[in-house]
Amino acid sequence: MSRAPLPFTEIPWRPPEQALSAMDSAPWAAFLDSGGPDTDDRARWSFLCLSPAETLDWHAGSLRRNGISIQGDVWTHLRDMAAASTRCPEAEDIIPFTGGVIGMMSYEAGMALEKVPSRHVSSAPRLVAASFEDVLAFDRHEERCWWISRRGHPTPELTSPTICPAPSLRFRPEQPRDIWMDAVRSIIAFIRAGDIFQANLTMRWVAECADGFDELAAYRTLRQTSPAPFGAYLKTPDFSLLSASVERFISLSRGGLIETRPIKGTISLGHTPEETARNSRTLAADEKERAENLMITDLMRNDIGRVSQIGSVRVPQLSKVEQFPHVLHLVSVVQAQLRHELDAIDLLQATLPPGSVTGAPKKRAMEIIDLLEASARGAYCGSLFRIGKDGAMDSSVIIRSMARSGDTLSVGAGGGITVLSDPMREYEEMLLKVSPILKAFEA
């Protein structure tokens, strides 16, 4: 008896940047774009997803599925989308994502989960998500490429990218330095009063973009100047995310292994190998930065523990210095085993918004953040996620990113404030994080 053809095919290798040519005319598309050294397992795979079978978007006052207003709980609809369609076990043995849901959950969606009201109004959606049946997968390590199409669509035409100059943008900070530094002092006062141990204080830079703004050229510029293991370009008719995130939020394996990699603690990379080594030693010994990382690691242990098997939570890496483009960070790793009766949606609900961009205790830190920050965070400090047909998930913290709503682009940056924080040093660290993006688009 002849066997039906498999719904995936290996095709000749082409570099992932060629995927961008297929996104130009697509109203909905997602490019999960791993950058940096391809020897790093986190930067090995890239995925292009086109022509979603279903879409879901949630603004503060409305929920739409496939463009039609609907009732009900957003998480129920998201779980239903993630469960739809069939698996492809043959491809799953080779490729970590063969189709499923890709989406963005905003910081305000996380606030809703924690029942923290906000005094700000966000122009960004609380959630956008799409279910993809067609995936082009790139293995950067082995230089192999596959096309998976459950609907029998032909492989998309990919062409070499047209070299376009970076669009000029005039970003303006939403707060002057002195006002932001006063907010740092306010957080320190809250810490000394016993309200919190730490809070992540951020702000945004905003630029106007005309109707003819070349979003594709902007993303190409971002990925060239800030290659990152969790880079992404998520495109919808009303909202786009251009991300160069360096931080994994939560991953979930097919077998239920949870992993998060909280980043806290930052120093400049250095201009020479010797300077980089010296900065690495300085960061590793910095009492304030280590305390910041330890508190967030403990917060993530607590969040993951809500949905994990008893006794399975562990910390195999604590406050290790890792190198990224432009900066060095302290990175910890927390792992656990998901309870058998739960899934990726339960894991997201238990952990959003990411602990590394909130503070400890989490809910009180979020209340103070909302009081002191000048605007809604929107997509920034939310999470970009993918949930596969096999139930596995990976996600990033939305940092080092540009979010577009209408004719406005915003970029956020910030840092963890502890009782040992120096306001000027915190301001300079925030600029260190955001300056590569701002400089790439200077007029």
UniProtKB/TrEMBL annotation:
Family annotation (Gene3D superfamilies): Anthranilate synthase
Give the record's GO biological process terms: L-tryptophan biosynthetic process
Q: Which GO-annotated molecular functions does the record name?
A: 4-amino-4-deoxychorismate synthase activity
Q: Where does the Chorismate-utilising enzyme C-terminal domain start and stop, copy by copy?
A: 178-433
Q: Which spans of this chain does the record mark as coiled coil?
A: none
This protein's species is Gluconobacter albidus
Domain Anthranilate synthase component I N-terminal: start-end pairs: 15-146
Protein name (Swiss-Prot/TrEMBL): Aminobenzoate synthetase
